[in-house]
């Protein structure tokens, strides 16, 4: 499985952030990671230097093998919280999609 992290110009997208993001997202997805070919994470600070609550947007796209990509968006106060919330949402979405396939 490939992991790709993208950030906007206001968030420093260094190796440490990439490692943290990969650990959080793949850890939250758990057993589902073997069914994914790629995960793309996009992190952006919605209102840049203005600050405020829930201004970090995390969009995660999971690409299940043989299926259409599944995408979620989560807003939170900081990058790690946005990653955790986004990963939980993606896991719920993928569990639902794989569950539908299992019933067929």
Structure description:
This protein is an alpha+beta fold and 104 residues long. It has a single domain (2-103), classed as Double Stranded RNA Binding Domain (2-Layer Sandwich), CATH 3.30.160. It is 38% helix and 31% strand. The chain contains two helices and four strands; from the N terminus they run E-H-E-E-E-H. It has helices spanning 15-29, 79-103, and strands spanning 2-7, 36-45, 56-64, 70-76. It has a four-stranded mixed sheet with strand order 1-2-3-4, covered by helices on one side. The longest helix has 25 residues, at 79-103. The radius of gyration is 14 Å and the shape is globular.
Strand/helix succession: EHEEEH
The dominant shape is globular
- Counting structural domains, the number is 1
- What does the average pLDDT come to? 92
Annotated CATH architecture: 2-Layer Sandwich
Strand order of the largest sheet: 1-2-3-4
CATH topology: Double Stranded RNA Binding Domain
Count of DSSP H/I helices? 2
Q: How many DSSP-defined strands?
A: 4
Portion of residues in helices?
25-40%
Uncertain stretches: none
Protein name: Sigma 54 modulation protein / S30EA ribosomal protein
